[in-house]
Amino acid sequence: MRDPYDILSVAKNASAKDIKSAYRKLAKKYHPDHRPDDPKAKEHFAEVNQAYEILGDETKKAAFDRGEIDAEGKPRFQGFEGAGGDPFAGFRRASRAGGRPGGHPGDAQHFEFRSGGPDGAGFSGADIFNELFGNAFSQGGRARQAGRGGGRPAGMGDLNATLDIDIEDVARAAKVTAVFPGGRRIAVKLPHFVEDGQVIRLKGQGEETPFGERGDALVTLRFRKHPRYRVEGRDLHVDLPVSLRDAVLGAKVPVETPTGKLALSVPAWTNSGRTLRIKGRGLPKKGEGHGDLYAHVQIMLPEGGDPALEALFRQSA
């Protein structure tokens, strides 16, 4: 993967605000919903998300700047880079440099290669791994963490994605699909209660790790701006167009809700701007129940005019 700074087109000394602004601009630009005819939109969108996953997190950004993790957030084990197939080349260079990989003569840290035999000749690869990783690896390269309270380091092997969801999906606890870096798609069943910005963790749905345990898939949910509903907490607000006749005489007016259409009783002589409450038609609350839907009456005059209505007002003037 490319350098996240290049992907977001920001400098290494860019502020968190500038990084976030660059991410939002590119995420909007490459969102698949905005570029349905671009076959590479999903790829670019995933790349932008992955870059922000690194640079948008102060801890990960610092680790990347120090060279401790790569552009995908995976750890870089010092001493193995550039070995050209020889996993111990870095340590051979270290012994000549006086201690640690990439170090200089006189450095304080020292790696002791223990003997594999009683006479001290040669060294054991298993001993080296045990010295470096605290017995994390057993012979054959598999982890011996199970049952010891260990496991993979936090975050290793995790996948991250941001998913925009509709208000209807939230209200119905629908099944949605998250797209991860690399194009992998995972179906996600939304829980009963979902908040804007909430992160859902899918255990074991991430990548394989050297510790014999898969990482997790983390999905950040964001409420997509809706053309009809305005969200306030768990309540929803919607404009309700009502004809002048229905406002004067009263009527049953159809109104859309996230879970279906219903008929709302508009009392006679209802003024424009009046708010009518529809109980329990908002978003699910934590625990039980739902918020409410508030319909704001907007009186609409007939398009093209109404001669009879005009004559009536002229007659009463």
UniProtKB/TrEMBL annotation:
Keywords: Chaperone, Stress response. PROSITE patterns: DNAJ_1, DNAJ_2. InterPro entries: DnaJ_C, DnaJ_domain, DnaJ_domain_CS, HSP40/DnaJ_pept-bd, J_dom_sf. Residues 3-68 form the J domain. Gene3D superfamilies: DnaJ domain (1.10.287.110), Urease metallochaperone UreE, N-terminal domain (2.60.260.20). GO terms for biological process: protein refolding. GO terms for molecular function: unfolded protein binding. GO terms for cellular component: cytoplasm. This is Heat shock protein. It comes from Nitratireductor indicus C115.
